[in-house]
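Hey, quick one: can you model this chain's 3D structure?
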Amino acid sequence: MLRRQALTLGSLLLSALTLGGWSLFRQKGNSPLLLSARDDTDGKHYAVGYRLDGTQVFATQVGQRCHDIINHPNLPLALFVARRPGTESYLLDLRDGRLLQTLASQPNRHFYGHAVIHKSGDWLYATENDTTAPGRGLLGVYRFEGEGLVHAGEISTHGIGPHQVSWMPDGETLIVANGGIRTEAESRVEMNLDAMEPSLVLMRRDGSLLSKETLPQPMNSVRHLGVASDGTIVAGQQFMGPSHESAELLAIKRPGQPFIAFPVAEQQLQAMAHYTASVAVHSELRLVALTAPRGNRFFIWDLDSGAVRLDAPLADCAGVGAVADGFVVTSGQGRCRFYDCRQEELTAQPLKLPAGLWDNHLHLL
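Sure thing. Here's the predicted structure for all 365 residues.
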């Protein structure tokens, strides 16, 4: 459902240019803008924007809990995507947090928490569930038009229970992490743990399949993605099998090579408690970071050698994103931190951001 606003996307672009440009806003004070979803102590849901120096840009109350965030490449807009099995995502003006549109899922569909916007700024693709055939993976296709997003169709993800979708560096090839788990409408209850079908898919924007790969353990749900500028894909998993079994919770697909386990020590796998939440790649520093909130651990590895750069306790660590000199990490229970990764010994610094109640993802501009 569109919420009619006097401010159209065209006028947004015009005003951004008139006021000195969207790029100027993004670089204000050289302090990145952190976007994330948060709750308050009463359980209310918010879409928030903060500078890393602690300055609040906006905190907009929304009706449903959000998960990931994507920004428009040219306009001061971002979509806060509903957490599975949410049916509302929220398009906000990033300059002041105004809610421009509540994007409702189509009948018999719900969102899976992630989306991407094409580099042209014209098209958006969101992972969705077909609740008439629970788990049948779809990308809802939306077009930016007039005052907001309009549903324009859907394409198959060639799998079950798609979670995160990302772009390859060409900006045309889609990567989909199919979690492999069937769920019904308005439910997070897994229906097919004895017959999961997780996969990593590469596909074109027209829906045609380029490749589909799996990991050896069928109960290892492929969930979250990090992509390096050279096309290296890193995926974080959630293991749905018996608690006594070990599972490969981080996997990698290097250009021209198969999708395989990343070399993680058994002790670290055990510390993750079968659950990873957020993955980020730092292409310039050649690092990959991973949050494991159930194990209260945060990890950083060398992307090329697999060497451990950091294995640190962090209570309910949530979202992670790359900035110029390292990574920013949020926490569901404690302080947000910046990890400076420029030297051999990594250093942590607490940030002047609100503590706790952050969702499992963040997005940095």
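One thing worth noting: The two ends are 28 Å apart (CA to CA).
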